[in-house]
Design brief:
Keywords: Membrane, NADP, Oxidoreductase, Transmembrane, Transmembrane helix. With about 240 residues, this protein is α/β, with parallel strands linked by helices. The protein is built from nine helices and nine strands. It has helices at about 10-20, 35-50, 90, 95-105, 110-125, 145-165, 195-210, 220-230, 235, and strands at about 1-5, 30, 55, 75-80, 125-130, 170-175, 180, 195, 215.
Length: about 240
């Protein structure tokens, strides 16, 4: 299995869930921009599950040497790459912040996804799981830069699923709502609408085994976002969301 964004608590919880369920992987490739933290997780799954893992440094803000990945083969790719950025008004007009949000969540991520998608297509097998966000379902003033990048990523996964369908490769889009993670620490999240990484991992694993196309981590979010998507624009533009 290939894991992009392996410092993510959701990614790590999914790896553990899959191993607990008896999934067998010759090796798990943990791509990360934080090697020290990821090496601790690699040691953890080695001790707990006797699972071999290799930590590979990947910084999406820098130039990528794809030749390093030539010998990496897998049947599952799990992408949990995400960067929320600074959502304040100051952050909105900080072009550095904007570029980093777009680069990490979409523009620099998609070429990496494509690189491995091509390998899956060549083998005519495998599953690609991408974590997008409910923020991409409709642009809202509170986080529309992040939301626009996630909307683009959702569209990419949809097109990739369509393209790879007859190549026997399945693409699963996961749309988490509020998540209790380091990325959202300190934000005023409604506990009834917030999932833990373990809850998310269980939902994602279930969707993975059922070969779903799109899944919301908490079902309530599919209802919430359906309502938000269908609010007429002349009303929506006046709302504080």
């Amino acid at each position: 299995m290939i894991v992009l964004g392996s410092t993510s608590e959701v990614a790590q919880a999914f790896v553990e869930k899959a191993l607990q369920e008896g999934e067998k992987f010759e090796k798990i490739y943990l791509f990360t921009s934080n090697k020290e933290t990821t090496e601790r997780f690699a040691r953890h799954i080695d001790v707990k599950f006797l699972q071999q893992a290799e930590v590979i440094e990947l910084d999406l803000t820098k130039e990528i040497d794809y030749n390093r990945f030539d010998n990496i083969n897998s049947n599952v790719l799990f992408c949990a790459v995400g960067y929320l950025g600074e959502g304040t008004e100051e952050g909105l007009y900080d072009n550095r912040n904007t570029e980093r949000i777009i680069d990490i969540n979409y523009s620099k991520l998609v070429p990496v996804m494509n690189y491995f998608a091509h390998k899956f297509e060549s083998r005519r097998s495998g599953t690609i799981i991408g974590l997008s966000s409910v923020a991409g379902d409709r642009g809202r003033q509170s986080n529309f830069i992040y939301g626009s990048a996630k909307a683009a990523f959702t569209a990419y996964l949809s097109g990739l699923r369509n393209y790879l369908f007859d190549k026997k490769v399945h693409v699963l889009t996961i749309k988490p709502g509020f998540m209790a993670t380091k990325m959202t620490e300190g934000l005023p999240l409604n506990p009834k609408l917030t999932a833990t990484p373990k809850q998310a991992a269980a939902c994602i694993y279930k969707a993975f085994k059922k070969e779903k196309n799109v899944a919301y981590v908490l079902p309530i979010w599919s209802i919430i976002m359906m309502i938000i998507r269908n609010i007429p624009e002349f009303i929506f533009k006046k709302l504080k969301l």
